[in-house]
Request: fold
Amino acid sequence: MKNGKVKGLLCLIVVLACVAVFGWFGYDTADDIKLGLDLAGGVSITYRTVIDNPSDTDMSDTIYKLQQRVQNYSTEAEVYQEGSNRINIDIPGVSDANTILEELGKPGSLSFIDPDGNVILTGDQVVRAEAGIMKDQTTGLDNYIVSLGFNEEGTQAFADATSAHIGEPIYIIYDNQIVSAPTVQTAITGGECYIEGMENYEAAQNLASTIRIGSLSLELEELRSQVVGARLGQDAIRTSLMAALIGFIIIAVFMIVVYRVPGVASVIALALYAGLEMILLSAFEVTLTLPGIAGIILSIGMAVDANVIIFTRIMEEIGVGKTVRSAIKTGFSKALSAIVDGNVTTLIAAAVLFLRGSGTVKGFATTLAIGIILSMFTALFVTRTALYALYDLGLQNVKLYGVKKDKAPTNFVGRKKVFFTISIAAILLGWVVMAGGAVTGRGALNWGMDFKGGTSTNVPFTTDMSLEEIDSQVIPVIREATGVTDVQQQKVAGTTEVIFRTQTLTVEQRQAMADALVEQFGVDNETITTENISGAISDEMKQDAIVAVIVATILMLLYIWFRFKDINFATSAVAALVHDVLVVLTFYAVARWSVGSTFIACMLTIVGYSINATIVIFDRIREHLQTKTAKQSLEELVNISITQTFTRSIYTSLTTFIMVFVLFILGVSSIREFALPLMAGIVCGTYSSVCVTGALWLVLTHKTKAMKAEKAAKEKAEKKAAK
Reply:
């Protein structure tokens, strides 16, 4: 019976290992994962209708026409509605990105005007506009033309106009400019005509494109656009996967060295976890973006957390004299509540990110949420199965599992005044620095383009240029090409890449800048990344950031209150979250880190991560409250709880920090911009969980008891006086 059980468990482990390998290396799985534009390269653009409340019919018609247009560039292009008056266009895998943006341009109004200035028809009555070549019957030469087709209403209007104006021009007006003025040769009554006389086929294509653009049902204006070179995306994938592999190996070695046999079980579970994540990304057709890769790598680090909680419990049970098998069973049982509560609160942050974030932030939230759910599954089921299998194989010696005995508690709460003072000082420093920045005109924070609008261009030069060379040689070229005087530059540490920020540039200005950099400095055009954001959308992002943090905080407070049945737990946990956000904000202010689109994801990740560590401590306090003796003080109880979970807090923070640090070292600039504050947040979250939350709960609990005692005494005195 025992041998059969062992064989069954071994078969299960082999199956799980095959799933992990298939997930990582399976051709179809990897090939089916949908890459975002920042990885595949291409164009992303967001339009807003000029009118505030367009009809559903007009929106549908405009989306359909844009979809037909962008299919010429890529069969994978997508056009979809966002909100009531926005249209997003994603065109992956294209190399002539700026050309596409220029052709799409700013879809505007198109009209056909007769010589007397009367509008004959408008662009929405044009159903077809195509470039073509027609042989001249006399000379045999190619005649470049644009053929047009009209709907029923347009056919009648054009027939009437051409019948009345034979020998006269019909003016085609786009955005208040004459783009063509063909002369009417004969009355056109069939709804089909052609414009001839183009100097070449390219000119015919340009005119046809302009007419197609103007035939949209709605006039649109550009809110945001992004151009990413495909080569840059491939580099990002390569470096991010390398970071994931290196981080995984480091964590695997760490877990085996520290936890021995349980560590081996956790590595098996983590390998399966990573493979399943790849499979689910493909199965649910999740669009994988750079922040999404960061979410996967971060969740690998966080997946260790559940295993550390379980293994710590197992070692404690062995320490009180239980057998290894009994300790394994009890360890999983006691760790369950902390694992569930910690991961649910992090899921809340991921859900808020998904609902309130932009496209790339949603990608991060999706991969993070998948990772959290998978980590719970692998920790609670796969790790357990693997651990029992290894035990039944004969690995039963206590030394292979480790023993953790209770030690004298460290007096954490006795130093609460010092800890509170450090926290308050760090927060005040941030406010002072932000106030100073606002007064001096630098700005309270180094607002990225996402929050203030403008154009950001990332340029990898062929050689490493000094700041003086950039100021004296590059910026003058950019100014001349774009006609913009205010050009800010920022070097990306450890690379030859420079980020140039300007006011919002037109497509023509962006193309002129790229051409000038290619010509003057030999820059590879396919590596240049451009992002354009209007002021309107940046204001919305600021509002979304504030709302996201507030909503996530409130939902977490309610959940913790519900689970722990004590408002003091919820209040102190949320206070610690606010503490972490404000301290990390201090880092942003002092270091002048760019506050961009990933700022929201970074803050909510820190919030979710910090609450996870806090709940582990609170879970231990709650457990000890149930067995508290009359002689034991609350101070002693809290110190014991923090001491018992201290190793878990350090190990989990260390493994997560390792993953993010490797990502920071190897990742591209946009990933580094996310990883750097996240590392600060991990350290801050660990500090607040260990040094602040327990002491804060103790202070609130004492105050609550004092208030209840005072109220009871007052009621007693009132009753006595009434007698």
Q: What stands out?
A: The CA atoms of residues 110 and 174 lie 5 Å apart. The chain has 21 helices and 19 strands.
